[in-house]
UniProtKB/TrEMBL annotation:
<feature type="transmembrane region" description="Helical">
    <location>
        <begin position="20"/>
        <end position="39"/>
    </location>
</feature>
<keyword id="KW-0472">Membrane</keyword>
<keyword id="KW-0496">Mitochondrion</keyword>
<keyword id="KW-0066">ATP synthesis</keyword>
<dbReference type="InterPro" id="IPR045083">
    <property type="entry name" value="ATP_synth_F0_asu_bact/mt"/>
</dbReference>
<dbReference type="GO" id="GO:0005743">
    <property type="term" value="C:mitochondrial inner membrane"/>
</dbReference>
<dbReference type="InterPro" id="IPR035908">
    <property type="entry name" value="F0_ATP_A_sf"/>
</dbReference>
<feature type="transmembrane region" description="Helical">
    <location>
        <begin position="100"/>
        <end position="120"/>
    </location>
</feature>
<comment type="function">
    <text>Mitochondrial membrane ATP synthase (F(1)F(0) ATP synthase or Complex V) produces ATP from ADP in the presence of a proton gradient across the membrane which is generated by electron transport complexes of the respiratory chain. F-type ATPases consist of two structural domains, F(1) - containing the extramembraneous catalytic core and F(0) - containing the membrane proton channel, linked together by a central stalk and a peripheral stalk. During catalysis, ATP synthesis in the catalytic domain of F(1) is coupled via a rotary mechanism of the central stalk subunits to proton translocation.</text>
</comment>
<comment type="subunit">
    <text>F-type ATPases have 2 components, CF(1) - the catalytic core - and CF(0) - the membrane proton channel. CF(1) has five subunits: alpha(3), beta(3), gamma(1), delta(1), epsilon(1). CF(0) has three main subunits: a, b and c.</text>
</comment>
<dbReference type="GO" id="GO:0045259">
    <property type="term" value="C:proton-transporting ATP synthase complex"/>
</dbReference>
<keyword id="KW-0813">Transport</keyword>
<dbReference type="InterPro" id="IPR023011">
    <property type="entry name" value="ATP_synth_F0_asu_AS"/>
</dbReference>
<keyword id="KW-1133">Transmembrane helix</keyword>
<comment type="similarity">
    <text>Belongs to the ATPase A chain family.</text>
</comment>
<keyword id="KW-0138">CF(0)</keyword>
<feature type="transmembrane region" description="Helical">
    <location>
        <begin position="72"/>
        <end position="94"/>
    </location>
</feature>
């Protein structure tokens, strides 16, 4: 039962045991035509409205560190994670964001680049950032230790937050679907109703988690200057 339950997160297939399910990560680039994004239509205007809202918010967070195109990285991160989160809600499609190997490969390079840039170009600011203003002298060594640990675990918390939320929702949906064969027939409609509500909830989680990882990455970027 448990092996069947967690098999939905298995990237391997029955074709020579290859991990070709990871190709679903880039499925949108193959399926969505070029005209879908650039010929003005209803989808184009909705998506453009969302991107402009994100651009203005990220621009505000970056403050004096903003330069032309700097928000593009975080908007692209939001779009990539959002697409893969939504893709995993469809039947028989692999959810790549439910694996730490993907989420950590997104958060770790970003965090590492922010840290390297900050320590190379603004090392005084980075040292000052470790000790909040007004900290008593006796607590300064502990604050440096706490801030250092907090900085180090940032990419891990970003990755684990995204992965855990994706796994939890998919496991719950799988458990409910497996109950269809064991519950009385008069409860089937109630079970379908619960699954629809859960699917709506998971759609909201997909958007929220995409926004969270993008907004936190923006905040981490603004701290290094």
């Amino acid at each position: 039962m448990m092996s069947n339950l967690f098999s939905i997160f298995d990237p391997s297939t029955n074709i020579l045991n290859l991990s070709i399910n990871w190709l679903s990560t880039f499925l949108g680039l193959l399926l969505l035509p070029y005209s879908y994004w650039f010929i003005p239509n209803r989808h184009f205007f909705i998506w453009k409205f969302i991107l402009m809202k994100l651009h203005n918010e990220f621009k505000t967070l970056l403050k004096n560190n903003y330069f032309q195109g700097s928000t593009f990285i975080f908007i692209s991160l939001f779009s990539f994670v959002l697409f893969n989160n939504f893709l995993g809600l469809f039947p028989y499609i692999f959810t790549s964001t439910s694996h730490l190997s993907l989420s950590l490969s997104l958060s770790l390079p970003l965090w590492l680049s922010f840290m390297l840039y900050g320590w190379i170009n603004n090392y005084q600011h980075m040292f000052i950032h470790m000790i909040p203003q007004g900290t008593p002298s006796i607590l300064m060594p502990f604050m440096v230790l706490i801030e250092t640990i907090s900085n180090i675990i940032r990419p891990g918390t970003l990755a684990v937050r995204l992965t855990a939320n994706m796994i939890a929702g998919h496991l719950l949906m799988t458990l409910l679907s497996n109950m269809g064969s064991i519950i009385p027939s008069y409860l089937i409609m109630f079970l379908i109703f619960i699954q629809i509500l859960l699917l709506i909830l998971e759609s909201a989680v997909a958007v929220i988690q995409s926004y969270v990882i993008a907004i936190l990455s923006t905040l981490y970027s603004s701290e290094v200057n």
